[in-house]
Specification:
This protein is α/β, with parallel strands linked by helices. It has 2 domains: 128 residues, translation initiation factor eif-2b, domain 1 (Four Helix Bundle (Hemerythrin (Met), subunit A), Up-down Bundle), CATH 1.20.120; 204 residues, Translation initiation factor eif-2b, domain 2 (Rossmann fold, 3-Layer(aba) Sandwich), CATH 3.40.50.10470. The chain has a 7-stranded mixed beta sheet, sandwiched between helices. Strands 11-8-9-14 form a 4-stranded mixed beta sheet, with helices on one face. A 3-stranded antiparallel beta sheet has the order 1-2-3, covered by helices on one side. Helix 2 packs parallel to helix 4. The longest helix has 31 residues. The model has no long low-confidence stretch (mean pLDDT 97). The structure holds 5-S-methyl-1-O-phosphono-5-thio-D-ribulose. The site of 5-S-methyl-1-O-phosphono-5-thio-D-ribulose has 18 residues, from helix 2 and strand 9.
């Protein structure tokens, strides 16, 4: 499986997701500003992968910072990384976790602080893979055998430290011997489905069919789709789910056609401080992503454009939220709170 991100002696190495699948190019970030740029430019993307990158960015920043004014440098590193993308809460979760370690280490020799931050970032990376495998174990049983799974965007190995959330559920179902295939929405405008999900599943030999986003309703109505599984960027306390733009339309069409709609996400994607999805900040991206494809202009000059990168699916469309601690079902205000509070074991 593809290595999305790695901590190496040369720096933080990432596969450049803007160039897949045409080219497999790796980018080495040698300072935290380069990591911040990679997140903003979507060289690395997907909520859990953004979190891992930010944690490694913090560790890299402190490795390069001098002992004088370390608190101010640490604040600047965190501020820069936090300003990259607003919607995926895993970014802020990872920075907070690194900050807690930094606070604990205050007053220690700088070499020890650096070593501890590096090991925390690597731990977040390793935990994420184990979490995704646990999500897969909890979700595999929900996938109907002999049917097609529809997914939107890329919630795979490329969007995480490895294995994936939604694609982790698919991988686990395939490993359990289920005869399934996948329909991948192309996911306009950034084409994560066409470029990344199609590539990633093809590498694994999982039968995959690419469809354009506006074909989803047609296939959901056909009876062929056994369930929908998508990832999430932020889940509010009531189970409203922010995910890639277009997810909401798929969820409504799934309910209309009695197809179960599952969200696969780690506990770190929960934001229980927000009562509903209305408070989730939605990133607005450049108009050129809509007006152009690979630098070729499709739309007339001067046309007004909207480009929200995410939408919010109200909880009533969500059949279940698959986490590493089990599957939450409605009423989500209770089930998510219970799963979040269950600190006994992070990964089951
Ligand atoms: O803009 P992106 O590519 O970062 O958006 C990614 C998604 O919306 C994913 O579905 C989500 O982050 C979950 S990834 C496991």
């Amino acid at each position: 499986m593809v290595e999305t991100i790695q901590w190496t002696p040369d720096g933080v190495v990432m596969i450049d997701q803007t160039r897949l699948p045409r080219e497999e190019v790796y980018v080495t970030c040698t300072d935290y500003e380069q990591v911040a740029h990679a997140i903003k430019a979507m060289i690395i993307r997907g909520a859990p992968a953004i979190g891992v990158a930010a944690a490694m960015g913090v560790a890299l920043g402190v490795e390069k910072a001098g002992p004088d004014g370390l608190d101010a440098s640490f604040d600047q590193i965190c501020k820069t990384l936090a300003a990259t993308r607003p919607t995926a809460v895993n970014l802020f979760w990872a920075i907070d976790r690194m900050r807690r370690v930094y606070e604990e280490m205050k007053g220690s020799p700088i070499g020890e602080i650096r070593a501890r931050l590096t090991s925390e970032a690597r731990r977040i990376y390793l935990e994420d893979i184990a979490i995704n495998q646990a999500i897969g174990r909890h979700g595999a049983g929900l996938v109907p055998d002999g049917k097609t799974v529809l997914t939107h965007c890329n919630a795979g190995a490329l969007a995480t430290a490895g294995y994936g959330t939604a694609l982790g559920v698919i991988r686990a179902a395939v490993s359990a011997g289920k005869k399934i295939d996948v329909f991948a929405d192309e996911t306009r405008p950034f084409l994560q489905g066409a470029r990344l999900t199609a590539w990633e599943l093809q590498q694994d030999g999982i039968p995959t069919t690419l469809i354009t986003d506006n074909m989803a309703g047609h296939f959901l109505r056909s009876g062929r789709i056994g369930c929908v599984v998508v990832g999430a960027d932020r889940i509010a306390a009531n189970g409203d789910v922010a995910n890639k733009i277009g997810t909401y339309s798929v969820a409504v069409l799934a309910k209309e056609n009695d197809v179960p709609f599952y969200v696969a996400a780690p506990i770190s994607t929960l934001d229980l401080t927000l009562a509903t999805g209305d408070a989730i900040p939605i990133e607005q991206r450049s108009a050129s992503e809509v007006t152009e494809v690979y630098g070729v202009r499709l739309a007339p000059e001067g046309i007004a454009v909207q480009n929200p990168a995410f939408d919010v699916t109200p909880n009533r469309y969500v059949t279940g939220i698959i986490t590493e601690r089990g599957v939450a079902r409605a009423p989500y205000t209770e089930s998510l709170k219970a799963l979040a509070a269950d600190r006994g074991s992070n990964v089951r």
